[in-house]
Hints:
about 280 residues; about 20% strand
Amino acid sequence: MPSTPAIFDRKLLRARRARARNLGPETFLIDRVADELGERLSAVLRTFDRGVDLGTPTDAVRRVLAASGKVGAIADVIADEETLPFASGSLDLVVSALSLQFVNDLPGTLVQIRRALKPDGLFMAASVGGDTLTELREAFAQAESEIEGGASPRVAPFADLREWGALLQRAGFALPVADVDRLTVRYNSVVDLMQDLRRMGATNILTERRRRPLRRATLQRLTEIYARRFADPDGRLRATFEIIWLSGWAPHESQQKPLKPGAAAHRLADALGTREIPAGEKPRP
């Protein structure tokens, strides 16, 4: 079988996250996501004996879960998300925040998560979506094309909402749900945005990235393009962060099942108080 293409350099990802911790991490995004994950989990009317926080780059999610009282024991797993060390049916809950977008084999990872869950176990995660940093992607592409004669991969091609929904179904999750939240953050300059990304450990880790340093002329042109196209009237620059929320359950016989075709107890026409028109018959005036 062909191997999964290595879109992301995961060794470099670990190095970039370590650098971010040394610089003093910028945590506004992960903290916001962790709080939202806690709120979403609080709406689930059950508790979980054993859970795992998979790959979240800070302890924000674990702190939120510990305060919620919803999880008996939550473990932080230091492992490659593409090769999970869990026995089948060993977990009640798997959560992850802003990590799965850097996995090369997403279908394989989701299948491993579903298998690790006990029947009726819950998977809940937040991932960066495809519209994230769309302004930076477009400004970089134009600047490099003008100054260097061609664009290089600078911002990762993250999966979008529809793709994530299909991946949950493909992995065998029951009752899969995917929805999206968009956050616009404003910056004084492109350099400030890049510094935040560096302190998030979220700079370019694409395997096809250009290795040489960013040229001064390209950065200057990037700054001009970004300011012209994506500045608000007060001069501050917009940056989009798209967060895709995912949830799904390991299948269990107690879960709600869709009705089979023709199994409805009442006709739609009766509910609407109208006459059902057989196929091919024209409605009467």
